[in-house]
Amino acid sequence: MISIFVTIRIKSGFFDRFVDAVYDDGKGSVRDEAGCFRFDVLKSSSTQNTIHLYEVYRDNAALEAHRSSPHYIKWRSTVEPWFDGPPERVEMETL
Q1: Cβ distance 8 to 81 under 8 Å?
Q2: Where does the ABM domain lie (predicted)?
Q3: Sheet holding 88-93: strands in order across?
Q4: Which structural domains are found in the chain, ordered by start?
Q5: Positive or negative CA dihedral for 74, 68, 54, 31?
Q6: Helices in 1-95 by DSSP H: which ranges?
Q7: Which of 9, 12, 20, 71 has its CA 20 to 30 A from that of 40?
Q8: Helices vs. strands in the chain: H and E counts, helices first
Q9: First CA to last CA across the chain, in angstroms?
């Protein structure tokens, strides 16, 4: 399995809208993608306007299917202007 941990910093004034949008993407991922096993949305308790995503996929093909899904494409085009810098991403292999 493939796990990813993504840190996204959000521009001031967009945090609540970002949270609403990322919940929709997460729900769509788990509901509609057989290869997505987990999609957690975490709020940083130490850094304002920072969200962490923890996602688990069956394999690289499932991760690529996620990135090609209609709900992800819609989410990304909606929220990308709200990013305060590029997301930080760590990809891991689940043991």
Answers
A1: no
A2: 2-92
A3: 36-43, 50-57, 2-9, 88-93
A4: 2-93 (3.30.70.100)
A5: positive
A6: 15-32, 60-68, 70-79
A7: 12
A8: 3, 4
A9: 8
For tokens 């992800």, the residue is 72
| Confidence grade of residue 6 (pLDDT, cut at 50, 70, 90) | very high
Q: Cβ(90)–Cβ(8) under 8 Å? A: no
Q: Which residue has the tokens 């809208």?
A: 17
Chain centroid to Cα 63, Å, comes to 11
Per-residue model confidence as pLDDT tens digits over 53-89: 999 999 999 999 999 998 899 999 999 999 999 999 9
